[in-house]
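Batch manifest line 494
LIGAND: nicotinamide-adenine-dinucleotide
JOB: complex structure
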Amino acid sequence: MKTYDHFIDGEYVQPLGGQWLDSMDPYKGQPWAQIARGDARDVDRAVQAASRAMSSGPWASMTATQRGKLMLKLADLVAANAERLAEIEVRDNGKLLAEMRGQLNYHPEWWRYFGGLADKIEGAVMPIDKPDMMAFTRHEPVGVVGALTAWNSPLLFIAWKCAPAIAAGCTVVVKPSEFASVSTLEFAALTREAGFPNGVFNVVTGLGAEAGSALVDHPDVAKITFTGSDATGARIYAQAAKTMKRVALELGGKSPNIVFDDCDLDKAAAGAISGIFAATGQTCIAGSRLLVQNSIKDVFTQKVAALGASARKGDPMRADTNIGPVTTPAQFQKIIDYMAIAEGEGARCILGGGPAQPSAELTGGQFVEPTIYTDVTPQMRIAREEVFGPVLSIIGFEDEAEAIAIGNDTIYGLAAGVWTRDIGRAMRMSKALKAGTVWVNTYRAISYMMPFGGMKHSGIGRESGIEAVRQYLETKSVWMSYSEDAPANPFIMR
Ligand code: NAD
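JOB STATUS: finished
ARTIFACT:
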């Protein structure tokens, strides 16, 4: 079993507290690696390295073009190591190898896109309304960024957060989830191989309440970018206020996937299944509320249930597996608890509804049955709270107005799906839904060039796309007078 240390200032260093944590393989139900248990001292060491790199040395004096070239080199190294990194992440969080291969082969595009953007961060010259004055803006890196990531897609979140931050000229300290840190630690070695100067990319592992909280508190961290649950996000938001940090939050969801009777039902059924059963439902964008127009509700429900029933649970490394294990024991219990809540509320279970039956292939892992409830009403907890598992609630609606009302009746606003052949309806729905992303006749599509993030309790800020880099910049306004006139009256505003 390999033991991993922190990655600070370009090298792997042991935790100052001398303690390590087991990292579990969710499929086998056994520890497969150990990660350092960091505390405030390790975090301080990493933040100091990141601060030094910001203020002096090669990173501070590098041109934006040189910065971009390093990022392109890193992209090539990730591409060359995609298979290895994908397998590591499967061992760490139980995601399907097929899904992780796709993610890792796509991951380099974030470094290429933002690497290309690094030397296109332009300020503006203002046609200023005062005589003999030159006024312009510069966009400067915000400073040291603390990145806290969730366990469901650690390397994807590194790309989303660190590529724009590093393009902006920031340095980063990443604190990955204690349940899936190994891929981030392996990725760190690639930043060194790419030639990133020491201190630009650092990783401190450990528990949220110890290492994570210390990162949020550290006075030399300028910005926290967080992906995780809304409860932790709210706590971090309040905590970060004490040191006036900038905060970006990517949180949970209860996304509506809305099916109208004029759509292609087969495509919509596939979209409904991929929306909720992909990644064993452990995605923030899970389309966990399937809103179906009453006129097709019975026939569409049958289609979705038949497709869901065909999902094969098993070893996430196997190409024919559709449903892998739940990543943590706590998450497994949470899913089972929500199934009991749904039953208690009177929802009707038409698929699954409990832990998976044991079999030779499922020993060790915490597997749940892909589950579908009908007769769900919008007031039920199963329709309002994020389960973060393969549990779908089907809710009927009559018309567009009711679909919008139910779709928006949630504290969340991360994503929504709309299935229709009517272009006018697609436009009206995409405008009316309060969600950071609306997919029409597709679901779960993402890209490095498309902003991603939530409205309402689903978060603050956007990742990916050009606007992501602005979230790691401060705008400075520079005023220069070249007036030869006598000094103005110092007691009035200029
Ligand atoms: P979590 O909130 O428990 O943990 C996220 C990260 O924060 C981890 O690194 C954790 O160690 C750290 N952390 C926990 N407590 C902390 C504290 N007090 N101070 C500082 N750091 C702390 O979330 P999770 O269980 O790892 O992930 C699941 C959640 O993430 C779900 O709610 C899901 O919806 C959300 N998520 C959101 C997105 C998105 O982009 N919007 C993507 C994936 C997951």
